[in-house]
Amino acid sequence: MTYTVYTIEMAYARMREMQDLANRSRAHQTAERRAEARAARETSRTARAKKR
Question: Which residues lie within the region annotated Disordered (predicted)?
């Protein structure tokens, strides 16, 4: 049986990896929301233009 020593440095490195993943996910979601809002504005503009 082999045991691996889990050091505080390993824990810190893993915590940083998880934080980076969370930040990337958050940035991706924000970009998606911006694109959805832009598409909604374009749709409403074209609808108003057709009414005129």
Answer: 23-52
pLDDT digit string, tens, across residues 1-52: 788 888 999 999 999 999 999 988 888 778 788 888 888 888 877 766 665 5
Closest CA to 48 of 40, 4, 1, 34: 40
d(CA 4, CA 44): 59
Which residue type occupies 43? T
Q: What are phi and psi of 49, to 5 degrees?
A: -65, -35
